[in-house]
TrEMBL record:
InterPro entries: Fe-S_Maturation_MIP18 (IPR052339), FSCA_dom_sf (IPR034904), MIP18-like (IPR002744). Gene3D superfamilies: Fe-S cluster assembly (FSCA) (3.30.300.130). This is MIP18 family-like domain-containing protein. Residues 10-81 form the MIP18 family-like domain.
Length: 107
């Protein structure tokens, strides 16, 4: 995701999502590269496309709820729609350098 193209509200949502930690890996969803798209319209509707590191992840509901709560914590966000997507497929190269180092992944 190109953070430089986000507007002020979208950036605020992004920053809130950066604090959402994957409970299995101990790394934020943003650093894992799981957040693919954030869109906030003029009516305060936030749409977030995100993915998982593996299909069938047992904590989908936990992550969905955490993403929703993070977005709704931003002033001006009136509604949040999360969409779990599988394209493009997630790979470790989507992770931040810090996340790769923390998890011991060398690309």
């Amino acid at each position: 995701m190109d953070v430089s193209k986000l507007n002020e509200k979208e950036k605020a949502v992004y920053d809130a999502l950066a604090k959402v930690i994957d409970p299995e890996l101990g790394v934020s969803l943003v650093d894992l590269g799981l957040i693919y798209e954030i869109d906030v319209d003029d009516q305060g509707v936030c749409k977030i496309n995100w993915t998982l590191t593996t299909m069938g992840c047992p904590i989908i509901d936990v992550l969905t709820g955490s993403i929703y709560e993070a977005a709704m914590s931003i002033d001006g966000i009136k509604k949040c729609e999360t969409k779990l997507v599988y394209y493009p497929q997630w790979t470790p190269d989507k992770m931040s350098r810090e996340a790769r180092m923390l998890l011991g992944i060398h690309l």
